Amino acid sequence: MTKNKAEWRDPIVEEIHRFREEYAKKFDYDPEKMFLDLRRRQEESGDPVVSFSPKPAVAANPPIAPARPSKRRGT
């Protein structure tokens, strides 16, 4: 018995989608306006903002370890 995924609905996810739609509509779906509003809210909250240090860059071609000498005795 398989359950059709279209039948399953999560009320919490639906609520988040509704909120997201209402919020975006309030700012004419303009990401710049939404960003400015979120930044304003952040500043007004007075809560500390976490800022992570940039991670060190990973080398595209990491150095190759030198070959280890063979443990086999001379043949």
**DSSP helical segment count:** 2
Could you report the average pLDDT, rounded to the nearest whole number?
A: 84
Portion in helices: 40-55%
Pattern of helices and strands: HH
Number of strands: 0
Ends apart, CA distance between termini: 66 Å
Structure classification: mainly alpha
Tell me what portion of residues adopts beta-strand conformation: under 5%
- What is the overall shape? elongated
The radius of gyration computed from the alpha-carbon positions, rounded to a whole number of angstroms, is: 27 Å
The major pleated sheet works out as: none
Q: Uncertain regions: pLDDT < 50 for 5+ in a row?
A: none
Describe this entry's structure for a reader.
The chain has 75 residues and is mainly alpha-helical. It has a domain at 11-45. The chain has 2 helices and no strands. The protein has helices at residues 11-26, 31-45. The mean pLDDT is 84.
Topology diagram in text:
Blueprint: H1 11-26, H2 31-45
Keywords for this structure?
mainly alpha, single chain, 75 residues
In short:
The chain is an all-alpha fold. The protein has two helices and no strands. It is elongated.
